[in-house]
Amino acid sequence: MYSLDINFLSDREERISTEPVASKAVAPQSPIMLYAGLIIGIGLPAAMFGLFLFSQYRTGILQQENQALDNQIAQIESLRGEFADVDGQVQLIEEEVQALATVFDRIKPWSAILQDVRDRIPNMPANTPPDIVQVIQISQVEEDSAPRGTTPVANADGTVPPPPPPPETKIQIQGYATTFTAVNDFLLLLQRSPFLNSSQTRLVVAELVDDPRQLEPESDDVSVEVSLRQQVRYTIEARLTDLTASELFDELEGTLSYGLTSRIETLRNRGVLQP
Question: What is the pLDDT of residues 226-241, one digit of tens each?
Answer without folding.
Answer: 677 888 999 999 998 8
